[in-house]
Amino acid sequence: MACAVAGPVLAIYFVVRFLRGGWAPRAVPIAAIFVMLSWPGDFSAHKLQTTPVGLLAVVGSFLLFGLGTLAALTKQRWNKTEIG
């Protein structure tokens, strides 16, 4: 039901942007996108609450392992050492 309102608001925003040639306040499309994501977010939160804790621990472990690997692989970009 919320998408039935947020979709036209977003469409009108982009039509007005096209006609005027400039960006209006960005709060309107951001709010419309948040409204559109409210139902999937609520559904995901409910599913997450009913998921077994062991499965969440394993998924969280893999996620942290992946983030650590990504940080190690990109260390040379964000951790510059000065020679001098």
How would you describe this protein?
The chain is mostly helical and 84 residues long. The protein has a domain at 1-36. It is built from five helices and no strands. The chain has helices spanning 2-20, 27-36, 38-49, 53-73, 75-78. α1 (2-20) packs antiparallel against α2. The longest helix is centred in the C-terminal third of the chain and has 21 residues, at 53-73.
Brief description of this entry?
With 84 residues, this protein is an all-alpha fold.
Number of helices: 5
Query: What is the helix content?
Result: over 70%
Order of helices and strands: HHHHH
Q: Give the mean pLDDT.
A: 88
- Give the low-pLDDT segments: none
Strand content: under 5%
Shape: flat
Number of strands: 0
Overall radius of gyration: 21 Å
Write the layout of secondary structure elements.
Blueprint: H1 2-20, H2 27-36, H3 38-49, H4 53-73, H5 75-78
Helix pairs in contact: 1-2
Task: Give the tags.
84 residues, 5 helices, flat
